[in-house]
Amino acid sequence: MWVITMMREKTGITGFDELIQGGLIEKRVYLVSGPPGGGKTTFGVQFLAYGATIGEIGLYVTLSESPQNIVSDMSNYSLNIPTLIKLKKLLFLDLGPTLDYGYGDDLHGVITTSYDSVSQPAPEAEAPSPFIVYKEIQNFVKQYEVQRVVIDSVSAIRFTTVERSQEEKEMSRFMRNMKKLGCTTIILSELTDPSTYSTEQFTASGVIFMHNFMRDDSMVRAVQIIKMRGTEHDCDMRKITFNKQGLQVLDRM
Ligand SMILES: Nc1ncnc2c1ncn2[C@@H]1O[C@H](COP(=O)(O)OP(=O)(O)OP(=O)(O)O)[C@@H](O)[C@H]1O
Ligand SMILES: [Mg+2]
């Protein structure tokens, strides 16, 4: 009889791993979607920070926000982000359309803006295509033996395809290639409606939705697992809270 053991990667997010049989099945690609301020970046950074503390090198790829802003915002949490960066357990790769070379702080040298290996149009001119994003990530994964990857966000590369009709094909190719890289990857995507589906959602091994909306006079903040292949999982909306430790999952709504 075949016994296939699937290793699970803990996200380290309090209350979340229990919802998915202990963690994400390793070496697969997942999507964390949600509206502005839903906690996508926090989710991704926590996943990498936890990995870094157990010796797994994490790579955070920024496509819209600058790494400096993300590092500065995320350093507000007590996740030891600056230390993990200095120890090179947490790497940042800036693939945004407008690169900022003005590093003046001590993180210079570990956060890279490098795009040198690419002989394509200047990155200042346009957002990188899925192909270029993949190639850059592949370089980093090989060079630094990266095990966990977060891409922030897919929306930034989705619309760079010249031919609209090629867009879905290109995204599906991107997802397949990312899976082949062998890292446990979380792709963040800006989405306001959990019932509008995209290629990424169908091709991802799991989809997690971060809710953030007004009800009566207060904001509802919750997480919901839309799908998680090969996993017995909770499907309900679970309240989340943000505190010094990052985001934490509480009870059912
Ligand atoms: N130190 C902190 N303590 C408590 N809450 C915080 C803290 N830092 C951030 N938050 C909350 O987290 C929210 C932002 O979360 P995050 O940046 O992860 O969301 P996002 O989904 O990535 O947003 P965007 O779509 O803008 O990229 C803030 O709006 C704030 O409510
Ligand atoms: Mg964000």
CATH superfamily: P-loop containing nucleotide triphosphate hydrolases
Give the helix proportion (percent range): 25-40%
- Average per-residue pLDDT, rounded, comes to 88
Task: Tell me the CATH topology.
Answer: Rossmann fold
The tally of strands reads 12
The ordered string of helix (H) and strand (E) elements is EEEHEHHEEHEHHEHEEEE
Q: Class in CATH?
A: Alpha Beta
The count of domains is 1
Sum up the overall morphology in one term. globular
Straight-line distance between termini: 42 Å
Radius of gyration: 18 Å
The unique ligands bound to this protein are:
adenosine-5'-triphosphate, magnesium ion
CATH architecture descriptor name = 3-Layer(aba) Sandwich
Q: What would your notes on this structure say?
A:
This protein has 253 residues and is α/β, with parallel strands linked by helices. It has one domain: 3-Layer(aba) Sandwich (Rossmann fold), CATH 3.40.50.300. It has seven helices and twelve strands. The strands form two sheets. Strands 6-5-4-7-8-3-9-10-11-12 form a ten-stranded mixed sheet, sandwiched between helices. It has a two-stranded antiparallel sheet with strand order 1-2. A hairpin with a 2-residue loop joins strand 9 (206-215) and strand 10 (218-228). Mean pLDDT is 88; it is low at 100-112. Magnesium ion (MG) binds at residues 40-41, 152.
